[in-house]
Amino acid sequence: MKIGMTLPVMEPGLTRQNLEDWTLRIDAGPWSHIALGERILFPNPEFISTLSAVAAWTKRVEIIATISVLTMHNPILSAKQFATIDMISEGRFTLGVGVGGREEDYNAIDSKWSDRRWGILSNHVKTMQSVWSKEYHPDLGPTTFSKNGPEILAGAVGPKAMEMSSDFAQGLAGFSFNADIEEIKDSFNRVIGAFKNKGKTPRLVTSFWFGLGEGARSDIQTHLERYLSWMGDDLAKDLAKIAGFSGSQGDLNDFLLLIKAAGATDVILVPTSKNIEQLILAEEVVAKFR
Predict the structure, then answer these.
(1) Disulfide engineering: 125 pairs with which of 141, 168, 181, 222, CB 3.0-4.6 Å?
(2) What's 174's domain CATH number?
(3) Domain ranges, residue 164
(4) In this structure, is residue 223 part of a structural domain?
(5) Helix or strand or coil: residue 267?
(6) How many structural domains compose the chain?
(7) How many Cβ atoms sit within 10 Å of the Cβ of residue 152?
(8) What is the pLDDT of residues 137-182, one digit of tens each?
(9) Do 153 and 205 form a contact (C-beta atoms < 8 A)?
(10) Distance CA 3, CA 17 (A)
(11) CA 285 to CA 281: how far, in whole Å?
């Protein structure tokens, strides 16, 4: 099982130095990949620009987009942007795609909320793949470093979405809201079943929010009350009390062992603080899995 770390891009007051320090340490450490996700109506740095910076700063780790809300965007422009990231990273880029869940993000960039459909997402992915293969237009580049363009993972949850994503994706870009092993096992079983129908063995990726040491639960609550505020303040506060993983390094080690036993190919930790001490504490655990 490979283990990666998400950059703390959803934390307020983030600076270039924060991003560079985290990125370089992840690339030099025991991590297999570095990840970040997309959000529009939020004070996080812009998704494509940040992925490009990470591609330029790093030399070794796989870069995973978790996830691009592709149905908000023009697939031709997206194909060109992601081909550029694949080229800069020399093939270390993996693209997670999904339809998102925040109407405010669609509205902020004048996209249609009615396009939040897995059928449209599937068509967008196939359009991008036609760009990368030069079938769409021979002069539309750059040429991807990867032979067939970036590997695609699907941020699918429901059975219908998983079934549809098995047509175009190589696996699951999953997320366990409650950092619960039974929740993770259930998502793996459902995606394995959906992909088996197409004669494919999926890559099984899961992720979860985490906090380590004293004050970990407080960090998670502060982070999630802000991050989930689009759901309403009362619901965000209630969910922040139970979501994610908080505990000691030993607790994290035990949880990762359970995830490995569940059949995960990859797991990605999602920090709830930009304090680099959280990264250092986590890498001490991850080093044991190398």
Answers:
(1) 168
(2) 3.20.20.30
(3) 2-217+245-289
(4) no
(5) strand
(6) 1
(7) 22
(8) 999 999 999 999 999 999 998 888 888 999 999 999 999 999 999 9
(9) yes
(10) 24
(11) 7
